[in-house]
Amino acid sequence: MAPAVTPLERAIRGRKALVGVIGLGYVGLPLVREFCRAGFRVRGFDIDPAKIQALRAGKSYIRHIPAKILAPHLKSGRFVPTDDFSTLDLPDAIVICVPTPLDPMQVPDLSYVKATAESVARTLRPGQLVVLESTTYPGTTEELVRPLLEARGLTLGKGFFLGYSPEREDPGNPSFSTRSIPKVVSGSDAASAKLVSLLYSQVVDRVVPVSSTQAAESAKILENIYRCVNIALVNELKVLFDRMGIDVWEVIGAAATKPFGYHPFWPGPGLGGHCIPIDPFYLSWKARQYEVPTRFIELAGEINHAMPHYVVERTLEALSQRGRGLKDANILILGMAYKANVDDMRESPSLKLLELLEARGAKVVYHDPYIPRFPKLREFPRRLESTPLTDALLKRQDAVLISTAHAAVDYRRVVRLARLVVDTRNATRGIADPKGKIVRA
User: Catalytic residue at 36?
Assistant: First the structure.
């Protein structure tokens, strides 16, 4: 006999379910877009009133989610943004997309997940589905979220449903979207797993079910550790090859012509974005509970965290060769976003470069066509503004430091007008440099 179809399952299949998305940032807002596109009604929750006000005014604060995409859904009432968490009993399915940072001692900070789960628990009603998307260590869903929800007296798999599906966003990548990226899905029990898979299958092209929430959490951590370790490798090689007088970008490009057994990773001034600089430490922290060392993860973290210091030392060395020190030097940082062609500053190495240069007495300004003014950041309270990239500005600088290679910047003009260009991204490749202005770092 086939199992009975639950009311929630019927509502999801008919796209009549109300979906709640908690956290309207770089993960939550694209998810809102996809659920609305699929015909679902969506209620978006965020603790930041500025975001709610912007959305209600028909504005978007994320560049690759333009206002015109959200406008029809806001106007029709299909998408309702709110900071009223007392209404969390209204959605049939709730997706949690909140930050999971590290504290200053590199210890996982799950305060946002815990506070959100507590908010959900306060209003949890029979039949609701809750899905965590925030990247975290294996066991978070079962050890932290599930007990908070069960404390309401409802039974998992009958009274409420719980699952985990890691976010896989790549802001600014035109080749992949929320819909086209395969979605790993899992549940705390069989009934929950079925509902989580069904929910996401309505809005993404492919779901990838795994056996447990721990497996899904581990898959996301593995993805980011893989990138972290390989980026650390090429960053270490960059330092070595620079000492040897070898162009690391040329070497990587040559190696990448091998059609099998090799995937290119590129060096930079450090790691940025919410995932790669942070998530590996979640697993290394958890591994200590099992008395298992994670040497690769911790070494990769050390190498990548050291890269901004290396860049500053290379800048100082280049200035010294020109009879200038860092104290009172005018330094322009080109690019504050963590990667090219996005407006995302989360964990950007440019912030560390700014701090290190100012600590040495440099006078630092920045230019970024995508970040006219610093957003509200947990780790950096100052609200700096981008300086227009005029000829006079470039000529006035003792050094121009390319930290993010935005395509909108004319690097030939930068090299022509600047006295010294410190390039951490190979943005000046192919540009003639007869005066020896360009220094790789």
Answer: no
